[in-house]
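Appendix B: a complete holo record

For completeness, this appendix reproduces one full record from the ligand-bound portion of the collection. The bound molecule is magnesium ion. The inputs are the chain sequence and the ligand SMILES; the output is the full three-dimensional arrangement of the complex, encoded as structure tokens. No fields have been trimmed.
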Amino acid sequence: MGQLIAIVSQKGGVGKTSTAVNLGACLSALKQKVLLVELDPQCGLAKCVGLDGPNKGAGLIDVLRDSASPADVVHPVHPRLPRLWVVPTNIQTMAEETEYLTILHNNMAVVGRVLTQLKPSYDFIFIDTPPRLDNPTYAALATVDSYMVPIQCEYASMGTVGRVLKAALEVKRLYNAKLGIFGFLLTMADKKAGFTVRVVQEVRQYLKHHVFRTLVPRDPRLAEVPFRQEPVIAYDMQSPGAKAYIQLAREILRDTTAT
Ligand SMILES: Nc1ncnc2c1ncn2[C@@H]1O[C@H](COP(=O)(O)OP(=O)(O)OP(=O)(O)O)[C@@H](O)[C@H]1O
Ligand SMILES: [Mg+2]
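The structure of the chain with magnesium ion bound, as generated:
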């Protein structure tokens, strides 16, 4: 049975979608069966794998409308990554976004039912959430086994983490007693910058063993993913960003087999 992991932070641009795509790709390259699920109606994840736009295939909204089954909306990501799949939201218009958010508002548990059906077929399922602590993020937290928080190495990032932790604790208390912490990931690190060193120290001091040892550096090759529409390991295995996500995948597999 796979692990269901939500990637969450109410702060935009911290690396949630990049982490879903690139970590998912690296775990799949290490022989894990990985599914990426897009809950963010802005479709950033689908863009990263070339699945955004009309007629690119059914998505989560079609399952929520009862016009497709969960298995119908699972798409392969890349011919060289045969163990990686994605469920896009398939939201094309503002009206569809409103419809999607209304369905989640009225029935948050529907996401849980879809994910529970998909769970047995994968080793890891990563859920990409929007930069808000609202219905899609709560729906994810109410269902998953654990959550992962990317923390951008910048001044005052700890303030962001406090709000995510508070929201997660509330969901744990109200809806999902099994909810655990998958880990905190430091992203966009610049080892030469004094503030990166300070953020890393502060985050490790406060969150201790919950922080992944791997640091994801700021790497322009990672920023190309939405344009190239494929994970970084598909076009530059030797880039610092690709190496970091491979190292992170190995760290996760080591920790998973050690427990
Ligand atoms: N380590 C990195 N180095 C350089 N650029 C990065 C890195 N990680 C992500 N980026 C780029 O930074 C931008 C924000 O990243 P991403 O979309 O993953 O963040 P996000 O948390 O999903 O944002 P949002 O909350 O808006 O969905 C993107 O353009 C992405 O390509
Ligand atoms: Mg995103």
